[in-house]
Amino acid sequence: MVLTRRQALLVLNQLPKVGPVKIRRLLECFETPEAILAASVNELRQVQGISEASAKLVNEWQNHTDVTQEERRIRELGVHFITAEDELYPDTLREIYDPPLVLYVWGQLEMRDRLAVGVVGSRRCTHYGSQSAKKLSYQLAGAGVTVLSGLARGIDTAAHEGAIAAKGRTIAVIGSGLGQLYPPENQALAEKIAAGHGAVVSEFPIDQHPDKQTFPMRNRIVSGWSSGILVIEAPAWSGALITANMAAEQGRSVYAVPGPIDKPTHVGCHKLIQNGARLVISAQDVLDDLGNLFPSEAGPAPGSPSLYPIDSLSPEEQSVYACIGSAETHVEAILTACDLPTPTVSASLMRLELKKIIKQLPGRHYARL
């Protein structure tokens, strides 16, 4: 069977017990996924870290995978997949030690999803934790930040709901195939996300069931994709702390929401704060910190692309930007020229400022950078 490059990547992603690190090493040696699948066991064994068992799995790929069936299921579910060679594959994910080879996507990714914060926490959250997650995610999404979470019960669910309520963007990274969505009670939430609020994403083959290994693998995507991880209500044994540790190892910012000091459900967050995580009481704490991650007011170097080209902005952001001159422009003049509701203009100004496209000057004036 002659495979295209994308089909070969699907096959490699389906192989059990091989994983992204081994596949990356194979690609470094053989250059193309098609060449990997055509290699002999002996040739595969010459690559560092490739055991006899792994070499046989790759060489006998037709006995372990069914790319025709996988493509049929992709069409049936109305999803698609991207690879690291695609423009919409997050740049931050390319940087981690074990980037996913393939991302299955239900819904649509956008360039603005590059600016993302992961929101994680306990599945068995209290009312305080749930409301905190909804509020902070609402504020982040309203400011133009994509909210990433895992579609799990508890804090994850609240985070997605908060972002949707703000009419913002949210990405759910799940620990199963898209054809085996987990937990099943979040099917309606997943459908709402995919219908226009973001995407549900997985690295696993369409019909893979979740297990104890798939969730930690999912967590590295949430942390690796995000510019920072916000932990809301996590006991000492919470899996959210694993995600926070992954984020720290990947060089991401870690944020934590404090809670009552006598409640075990908040011990994990308090430990993170003691160990250097930034204490968060409003989304502005996160937004202020994220501002340091973007280009300085001097702008990008000549000839280099901007992280946020003007045509990638939302229609509201473009309208507000067009009303700001190179000299100082008062907010009242912007409101008059834009003919948009005041809350929409205010939110757009905040997002443009965060993206280092405009700057605020004294006296409620704004200017382009």
**CATH class descriptor name of the largest domain:** Alpha Beta
The helical percent reads 40-55%
Element order, helices and strands?
HHHHHHEHEEHEHEHEHEHEHEHHEHHEE
Q: Total strand count, please?
A: 12
Helices, by number, come to: 17
* Strand order in space, largest sheet: 1-2-6-5-4-3-7-8-9
Which secondary-structure class do the elements indicate? Answer: alpha/beta
Query: In CATH terms, what is the fold-level topology of the largest domain?
Result: Rossmann fold
Name the poorly predicted regions.
295-307
Structure description:
This protein is 44% helix and 14% strand. It is globular. With 369 residues, the protein is an alpha/beta fold. The model is unreliable at 295-307 (pLDDT under 50).
Tag the structure with descriptive keywords.
369 residues; alpha/beta; DNA polymerase, domain 1; Rossmann fold; Arc Repressor Mutant, subunit A; 3 domains; nine-stranded mixed beta sheet; three-stranded antiparallel beta sheet; 12 strands; globular
In short:
The chain is an alpha/beta fold. The protein has 17 helices and 12 strands.
Task: Please outline the helices and strands.
Elements: H1 5-14, H2 19-30, H3 33-38, H4 41-45, H5 52-59, H6 67-77, E1 80-83, H7 91-94, E2 102-107, E3 116-121, H8 127-142, E4 146-149, H9 155-165, E5 170-173, H10 187-197, E6 198-202, H11 214-225, E7 228-232, H12 239-249, E8 253-257, H13 267-274, E9 278-279, H14 283-290, H15 315-322, E10 329-330, H16 331-338, H17 342-354, E11 358-361, E12 365-368
Parallel strand pairs: 3-4, 3-7, 4-5, 5-6, 7-8, 8-9
Antiparallel strand pairs: 1-2, 2-6, 10-12, 11-12
Helix pairs in contact: 8-9, 8-14, 9-10, 11-12, 15-17
